[in-house]
Write a structure and sequence with these properties.
Order of helices and strands: HHHHEEEEE
Radius of gyration: 23 Å
Helix content: 40-55%
Shape: rod-shaped
Largest sheet: 5 strands, antiparallel
Mean pLDDT: 89
Bound molecules: zinc ion
Number of helices: 4
Number of domains: 2
CATH class of the largest domain: Mainly Beta
Distance between the termini: 52 Å
Strand content: 15-25%
């Protein structure tokens, strides 16, 4: 581990309040306690400020959970609707159609019609859509 990587490890350790990794990073890499501690504090401040951690584990975790939950969450908050995966919707536009929310993508719901096979359609969360049996 070079000096830069060691300091980075101290910062990540500070972010996670991980004393053991911190001590290991600075002892094994012979960086000064002062610089190590400065990085630790920077990491702790990042966490406090709500900055997303960029360490390997957090990045991997974010990558695994983001795609569906993030965008569904985004839709719920932005449009104040009870959208959720598996939720039922009624769509009234040129007829009445029923479907089930499969996922969310780019601010739109991905819906599978009851009578449309496996194909998914994108619907705007508030355009002609009613959330059947859901509570706001
Ligand atoms: Zn992290």
């Amino acid at each position: 581990m070079n000096r830069k990587a060691a300091l980075g490890a101290c910062r990540v350790a500070g972010y996670h309040d991980d004393t053991r990794s911190f001590v290991r990073a600075y002892v094994e890499n012979r960086i000064s306690y002062t610089s190590a501690k400065t990085e630790w504090n920077r990491g702790a401040q990042m966490k406090k400020a709500g900055v997303v951690c960029d360490c390997f584990f957090c990045k991997r975790a974010a990558h695994q959970t983001k795609p569906t939950t993030m965008s569904m969450d985004y839709i719920r908050k932005t449009y104040d609707v009870p959208a959720k995966r598996g939720g039922r919707i009624k769509y009234t536009n040129g007829g009445t159609f029923y479907g089930t929310i499969a996922s969310a993508k780019g601010g739109y719901l991905r819906v599978r019609w009851d009578e449309g096979g496996q194909r998914l359609v994108s619907l705007h969360p508030t355009w002609c859509v009613e959330y059947v049996g859901a509570q706001v």
